[in-house]
Amino acid sequence: MDEQQAFEDQDVAEPIDDFPQVDEVNLTKPSEDEAEPIEAVAEPHEDVDFVNTVEPPLDEAPYELPDDEEDVVTEEDDEVEVALARAGENAAAVANSASQSLKEGLEAVRNVRALSRQHADARAQLENLRRELDDAMEILDHRVEIERSFDQIYEQQTTEIQATRNAIDNATADMASLAAERDQLSARLTALRAENEEALRPYKNLLDTAKGRADDAAVALADVRRAVKAAETQASDATRKRDSRVSAANRAVDNAQERLRRVQTELDKLSGDPDAPITALPKMRDELVTERAHLDDAREEVEKVIAETQQAVEEAQARLFSLKQTLESAERVAEDTKREASERREEYDRLYKQARAAEEEINNAIKERTASIAQLAKTREEAEKHLDALQIVLDEAIDIHETPEVTKQLRDRITAGQAELERQDREVKNLAQSVKHLRESTRGKRILFFAVIAAVVLVAILLIWFFATRSAR
Predict the structure, then answer these.
(1) Among 375, 363, 367, which residue's Cα sits nearest to residue 174?
(2) Measured in whole angstroms, how far is the alpha carbon of residue 444 from the centre of its chain?
(3) For the residues of 4-22, what is the DSSP string, one character each?
(4) Would you say 410 and 143 are in contact if contact means Cβ atoms under 8 Å apart?
(5) Confidence band (pLDDT; 50, 70, 90) for 102?
(6) Distance between alpha carbon 406 and the CA centroid of its chain, in Å?
(7) How many Cβ atoms sit within 10 Å of the Cβ of residue 173?
(8) How many helices (H) and strands (E) does the chain have?
């Protein structure tokens, strides 16, 4: 009921668009032919024996009530029939009254909704008329202002248009001049690059030649250094071999001298011993001669080894000495060629930087011209847009000045529009009052209509709940 009351209290200016669409149903009183099945249902007792519900055996006769009992049953049946008939009549009357209430409630809802929609349409039309009138008045004010200041506007726009055209012409001429200068500088830059390349070519050749000599000298120096290192190794090997052989020969001499001393000592012992065997003394003398010969051979071998190895050492040292002299010469040549290549590089770099500086100066001048041309193009484009805007304003002023009849027609249309606006405003107010009156006069019928619908929905929910719980059991 609170929701229904809130629905009834809605602003009359708002259309009722949220109602569910209710199809028309036949709520009239049922005819007598349609009510006949109810009467037929109310008379089941005429065909059913409520006293004796058990069939008698086939071999026995059916039981018959006494006459007085039959009279009692007949009177009770008559009373039941009368009660059922009265209940049917009362139910029909209630149904007829409920259907009539539903019909009246539905009709009231439809009427309120239709009138609310009509009011909303009228109000929307009023807003459209107001906007159109405001737009027209704004246009009229603009035309009146233009017409009042036409001479001033014409002179101002004409002067500014001419100045803008002059600015466009000046920008175009400046762009052409700068483009010509840029082209001249580009041609000059191309020629200067060719001249610089031709002038630098001899210095580049000298640089390449000096660099080639320096590279060759560096390679030769590396080869000589490897040869010197190899010669040093050979000289060291020759000296080491000489010392080794001389040392071996000297050890052989020392061994021979030691054996000779032992033999001489033994011979001296035998010579002083009278008991020594006669044959022993000659043998020792022969052994002494042999050892002296061995000692002489060992000394000769020392001299021979020294002579042989000393020659190899001297040859290795002579080769090493010669290679070291060659290394010193190669180092001087490498240093000289490296210095010459460095000087040629510095000379070429200096001349190259000078040439590139001259080229860069011209290139910067070309960039400046190009940037200036771009800026002038942007300025000209903006001036052209401004010129178009000025021309539009001037054309509009001339058109308004030459068509006063359009201004008069617009003024007449505004006057008519104001009248139409007032009429539409009155109509909106009248419709608002009508909607309010209709709502108040049909409030009870609509409340009853929605209450019946809510009751039906509630009964349906209860039935669904009842059958659901019963099936769950």
Answers:
(1) 375
(2) 63
(3) HHHHHTS-TTS----SPP-
(4) yes
(5) low
(6) 56
(7) 11
(8) 7, 0
Where is mean pLDDT largest: 54-68, 252-266, 404-418?
A: 404-418
**Confidence at residue 425, expressed as pLDDT on a 0 to 100 scale:** 86
Amino acid at 146: I
Whose tokens are 């000489």? That residue is: 242
Provide the 10 A C-beta neighbour count for residue 148.
10
DSSP classification of residue 106: H
Residue type, 11: D
What is the C-alpha separation between 91 and 338, in angstroms, rounded?
132
Backbone φ and ψ for 13, nearest 5 degrees, come out as: -80, -15
| Amino acid at the residue 361 | E
d(CA 303, CA 307): 6
Give yes or no for a contact between 113 and 7, defined as CB atoms under 8 angstroms apart.
no
- From the centroid of its chain, how far is CA 397? 51
Are 309 and 246 within 8 A, CB to CB? Answer: yes
Tokens 């001393």 sit on residue: 261
Structure tokens at 450: 């929605």
Tokens of 97: 């009254």
